[in-house]
Write a structure and sequence with these properties.
alpha+beta, two-stranded antiparallel sheet, two-stranded parallel sheet, 3 helices, 4 strands
Length: 103
């Protein structure tokens, strides 16, 4: 299944429009499409997202403060996986904004 709509990107675009903060959709990219997390258990969700993100242009992120935008936080697996590919960049700071939490 290929996902055609990235609501987190549209939320980030709204934030960028209001704040003037630039948006970067190329430095961290999803290298494989995963099946929906909706009906997966906690452990299955973590396994489903392992290694799905790829870092490009790491040198352009040195010393930056990055805001990761996620639409819905369920287990945190996707957000943690995304942040983990950034952690070795020198001087990077990572913040996370989530619009909703699943029960």
């Amino acid at each position: 299944q290929i996902r055609g709509y990235n609501q987190s990107e549209w939320i980030a675009r709204g934030i960028a429009a209001v704040t003037g903060i630039s948006i970067d959709t190329e430095s961290v990219v999803r290298r494989k499409n995963t099946e929906t997390q909706t009906r997966k258990s906690f452990l299955e969700r973590w396994e489903n997202v392992e290694g799905i993100f790829e870092l490009n242009h790491a040198e352009s992120l040195i010393g930056k403060h990055i805001l990761i935008v996620d639409d819905v936080l369920t287990t945190g697996a996707t957000t943690v996986e995304c942040a983990s590919c950034l952690t070795d960049i020198e001087g990077i700071r990572i913040s996370i904004l989530t619009m909703a939490m699943a029960e």
